[in-house]
Amino acid sequence: MASQISLHGREPSFFSKLAFYWVNTLLAKGYKKPLLLEDIPSLGCIDQAAVAHEKFTKAWDLANSLRNGQTLSNANMVLKTLTKVYFHEMVLSGFCVFLRTIAVVASPLLLYAFVSYTNHENKDLHQGFFLVGCLIVVKVTESLSHRQFYFIARRTGMRMRSALMVKVYEKQLKLSNLGKKRHSTGEVVNYIAVDAYRMVEYPMWFHVGWSSIIQLFLGIGVLFSIVGIGAFPGLVPLIICGLLNVPYAKVIKKCQLEFMMAQDKRLRSTSEILNSMKVIKLQSWEQKFKEIVESCRELEFRWLSEAQFKKVYGTILYWLSPTLVSSAILIGCVFLGSVPLDAATIFTVLATLRTMSDPVRFLPEAISALIQVKVSFDRINSFLVDDELKNDLSKRGQEREKLDDSVTIKHGNFAWDPESPIPTLRDINLEVKCGQKIAVCGSIGAGKSSVLYAILGEISKTSGTVDVFGSIAYVSQTSWIQSGTIQDNILYGKPMVRDKYEKAIKACALDKDIMAFEHGDLTEIGQRGINMSGGQKQRIQLARAVYNGADIYLLDDPFSAVDAHTATSLFNDCVMTCLKGKTVILVTHQVEFLSSVDKILVMQDGQVTQTGNYEDLLMEGTAFEKLVNAHKDSITNLDTSSSESKSKSKLHNRDNKNWQSEKNSKENILTKGLGVQLTEEEEKETGNVGWKTFLDYVIISEGSWFLTLSVMSHVGFVALQAAASYWLAFGIQIPKITKVMLICVYTLVSTTSMLFVSLRSLFATLLGLKASKAFFHKFTDSVFSAPMVFFDSTPVGRILTRVSSDLSVIDFDIPFSFAFAFSAGIDLLATIGIMASVTWQVLIVAIFAIVASKYVQGYYQPTARELMRINGTTKAPLVNYASETSLGVATIRAFKMQDRFFEDFLKLVDSDASTLIFSNATLEWLILRTEAFSNLTLITAAFLLVYTRKGSSGLVGLSLSYALALSSIQVFFTRWYCSLANYIISIERIKQFMHIPPEQPVTLENNRPPSSWPSKGKIHFEDLKLRYRPNAPLVLKGITCTFEEGTRVGVVGRTGSGKTTLITALFRLVEPDSGSILIDGLNISHIGLKDLRMKLSVIPQEPTLFRGSIRTNLDPLGLHSDDEIWKALEKCQLKNTITDLPNLLESSVSDDGENWSAGQRQLFCLGRVLLRRNKILVLDEATASIDSTTDAILQRIIREEFSSCTVITIAHRVPTVIDSDKVMVLSFGEMVEYGEPSKLMEMDSFFSKLVAEYWASCTKNSLEKFDGF
User: Fold this and answer.
1) Domain-by-domain residue ranges, the chain?
2) pLDDT of 683 strictly over 60
3) What positions belong to coiled-coil segments (predicted)?
4) Whose C-alpha in 477, 596, 740, 788 is 20 to 30 A from the C-alpha of 1062?
5) Is the pLDDT of residue 653 over 80?
6) pLDDT by residue (tens digit) across 1135-1192?
């Protein structure tokens, strides 16, 4: 039935497919040992994501062309396309569910025949055995068709899921900037991780929906065939109950929609917070951002509660309708006299209504599930039809038509927002010849990066032409690094050519860094390059571009994150030497390199104000003159005469005495001290953890009372239902009991049982809601109080899958799967008990069937458990990959690497799908065998009733009416029991992150510093040693030093020398291994983290903004007035820019502050510290992304505003620290020098070498030209 299941390359036989024998190999392997991902067979060709995507794309493109031709609506296009592609599979699964429906409806007719048979005086055994034979055929047909239906429907759903996941990913690679604004990274990840995932259940619920309606109508037909017009009164309550489902479905739809919107908002906030956790911890904003996530969850929880309580109302409706309908029909039979009211009639009516209760119960669930799917369809649809990048660069990537041309832009106007009246770039004219080196410079926000985006086609072109001849390599301003090894990031999908690879590494000054890493170039990089310094990330990006071997290189401020010596080395060795003969367009703030390029573009307010070479622009003056003068002022702070004289001698022997040569004698360390690979394998339990996890679920949620009451309520319900059935069985044979009394007592007892079943659902819902609240709060508290090393080594996707899909399982699935599992277990025992009360011999077979079912379940469970766990670990890489792609899509498109990323994503989707298809197949394998055992019990009971010829017709009817329900009850129990066992894995996964060893306390009540602390700002390091992990080497090796109050201290050193780690220690992001730091004589390890961090100000290495407004970014805690904020903005040079915006302080900031330039983002960070006014200020490479003019202004502001403060500056530009009171020089985690810059300059010191190198590069590239000027 299931077409083309490939296992180890072989096609199973028809009977193997029918009975699921083809999964025996996997089950046997899983029973012997815990399964691993490599143990799971790969998907057959027909199930692979590539095939699903190809079919979907073909149909989608056809639908698009028809729509464009006829100007049709683009609504429901996803649904229509899927219907077209999977029509045959849907028909096949529909046929299976139709067969099953016929078999189910035939069962009450067989019961009627059996009871009628027992009423005969002379029973014909042949007729009895014929009935038993018919029962066997009906039950086997029902069982096989039902199992095939579930498997084929879920398999079709899996293919739909794969098609949509891949289509969404593909669209992400083509999405325009306008589309990106409408669909954030978090939302796109949600389309893949939540919406596309829902497709697995869609075909199943679709078929359950229509087959339930058919089953209802067929059931009504059976009732009419048995009781005639007596069935009419029963239609009234049936129609009323059916109509009541309509408002119920509408309310559920609203709850689902609101819940999903609230969930989207929470996940977007969570994703942003996790990606910026270092900044949040430095600023001690954890509590504020935790409250933001919790407030999003509160709204989400409100809609969750409403949806779950509405389901209680649904439960009452499901169970009340059969009672009311059966009572109405029986009364109709009495008063209309259509048929005599005997055992055959009564129990056939009850059996028929039991077959109708499933459709009544599942129809609202199907409607609810289809509503969820419809919402997901709409969301994916809106994304897939959104604006794509209009790549009209017809000549891009083609061979050059003329050897001269590389890039030409004529009268180009470009805008990030095409609807904006003011373009971002105006009247751009640019002609770049082959092999030219072009520099683009200008102040912050002038549009420098936008020029590169215009060449890449990333920004909307409103007019003009852009032609690009040749391939492009692009280095973005904000580093984009993938999770993986350094080697993977540099090769970027290209084959390894060792000489070329080593040349690229050397040209980008990465060779020494790689030597220092314990794992060399196989060192794993954490998410977003979290374990690399800013300089290392930038150089890895540059090496990736160099190794790519493109024709045109677009470099967006690549030297901002590296020190002066490295910047000079990169410019000379990489840009000028390694890329000789290549076209390079370089955006830079480093004026010292401008004299070496062929042409300079000076940008101002989105226009090219000046173009020419260095000498010509100096003669013209104006904007370029300002840039050069600012740079000249900064470097003339150095003692020119002494520097020049020293530079000659030092440069002469630099090769012998340079720090680089000393690296060989130093101990090799990792930049961040990681002795083991940073990102560990995702933790997962193995083997059988039993029901301890579920017990933890109850204990954590403090819901033991709700659990007990829920079980007791269901016991009461089953007891009353059984009592009502026994009353009918015995009462029908007692002449004294009138028919009206018989029906009234039955109705009263059955209706009373409704109270108990509603209480069962209510208590299960309350347990679920309590658990949702408890797990979320404990998880959130644990993650927000986790130390920084946890975030360094844990990919964000790993945390996000737990707060999205795993939390959804706790929210929706566990409460009801638990209620269904235990209630079906109680029903099963009650059913066997009732059957045994009529024919005790059935107990022998029933006990055998239960034992055999338990054995089969025990054989299945180890495989199912590990498949579920593996599935939990295959989803996170998929989500991570989609998230990473979204962040680096401009780089991917620039390198034309869409196809490679697409292929890699296909593999991840297939890996995830293989666990799903085998999970479903093994579950159907189990249920088929469980059904066989329960059917054996049923057939034995029927055979005994025929063969023994004992029992009254009432008891025969009672026994068979329960026996016919036995297999469905057992299947229901097995399915929900196994589902619950699988869902428990989500509890395991969330629990893993609920007990993360926390940071030190936020405050220590008995040891709080005075409110005026620190009054001076004196910092003393005493033999400070620090390692990032217990098994890692030391990164700081015994630093002893004192920063006097009110001094300006510059911290310098090569990349990886420990500069940023020193700040990490000061803020206690990592606790010292030994030694101490004292601020104003107070040991900072003895106070709370918040008390410490709130008293320190920092502008971090990577400027971070959050989605929201300018106000919330500058003052997240809401402590300052508008007037104070405006003053801070004025001081950090942003006031004019913001006053031009219509919404002023309420102007929006998009995800990661993408609508502001990197320089502006750093100015916002400066604004934050100006508001806080602390005694200690740390600038961690804070002015790396801004031009010399703005840098000089900011240094003046910092000098004025923080004149009485201790200012620690980590900088790559020597002028930034040259006017400091003291300079600390670090090398390989040791302090090699500490003193006044002027004194260090007078001796043969490490610092004087640094200055000499910087001075030499400036002299060579710039000062020669000043004389002429």
Assistant:
1) 51-66+74-386+686-992, 405-630, 1019-1105+1156-1259
2) no
3) none
4) 477
5) no
6) 777 777 766 777 767 666 666 776 777 777 778 888 877 888 888 765 555 656 666 6
Q: Are 1265 and 618 in contact, with CB atoms under 8 Å apart?
A: yes
pLDDT at 1060: 78
Out of 20-29, 408-417, 837-846, 991-1000, pick the least confident. Answer: 837-846
CA distance 1053 to 1228: 9
Q: How many CA atoms lie within 13 A of 123 on its CB side?
A: 19
Give the number of other Cβ atoms within 10 Å of residue 496's Cβ. Answer: 10
Query: What letter does residue 11 receive in the DSSP assignment?
Result: P
Count the residues in the chain: 1269
d(CA 1055, CA 1037): 16
What's residue 1064's pLDDT? 83
- The helix/strand count (H/E) of the chain reads as 46, 23
- What residues contact residue 121 under an 8 Å CB cut-off, 6+ apart? none
Spell out the residues 6+ positions from residue 812 whose beta carbon is closer than 8 angstroms to its own.
304
Contact present, 925 and 23 (Cβ < 8 Å): yes
Sheet hosting strand 425-433, strand order edge to edge: 425-433, 405-415, 460-468
Q: What confidence tier does 98 reach under pLDDT thresholds 50, 70, 90?
A: very high
Spatial separation of the C-alpha atoms in residues 60 and 67, rounded to whole Å? 10
CA distance 939 to 960: 10
Report the predicted TM-score, pTM, of the whole model to 2 decimal places.
0.72
Domain 405-630 = CATH 3.40.50.300? yes
| Topology adopted by domain 1019-1105+1156-1259 | Rossmann fold (3.40.50)
The DSSP output letter for 175 is: B
Pairing of strands 1222-1227, 1206-1210: unpaired
The pair phi, psi for residue 1134, each rounded to 5°, is -110, -5
Copy the structure tokens of residue 460. Answer: 């909307």
Which are the contacts of 59, defined by CB distance < 8 A and separation ≥ 6? 81, 84, 85
Q: What share of the chain is helix, strand, coil (3-state, %, to 5)?
A: 65, 10, 25
**Would you say residue 186 has pLDDT above 90?**
no
Partner residues linked to 1178 by β-bridges = 1098, 1208
pLDDT tier, 638 (very low <50, low <70, confident <90, very high otherwise)? very low
Give yes or no for a contact between 1077 and 1063, defined as CB atoms under 8 angstroms apart.
Answer: no
Mean pLDDT of 1116-1137: 77
Q: Tell me the C-alpha distance between 483 and 486, whole Å.
A: 9
**What per-residue confidence (pLDDT) applies to 1185?**
54
Confidence of residue 91 (pLDDT cuts 50, 70, 90): very high
Average pLDDT, the chain: 78
Nearest to 1041 by CA among 1068, 1018, 1064: 1018
**Three-class secondary structure of residue 471 per DSSP:** coil
Q: Which of 349, 342, 314, 364 is nearest to 233 (CA)?
A: 349
Beta-sheet pairing, 1048-1052 with 1230-1235:
unpaired
Please state, in angstroms and rounded to a whole number, the distance separating the CA atoms of residues 234 and 237.
Answer: 6
Residue with the two structure tokens 């498109």: 893
CB atoms within 10 A of CB 68: 10
Answer whether 51-66+74-386+686-992 and 1019-1105+1156-1259 agree in fold.
no
CA distance 509 to 536: 9
The highest-level CATH class for domain 51-66+74-386+686-992 is mainly alpha
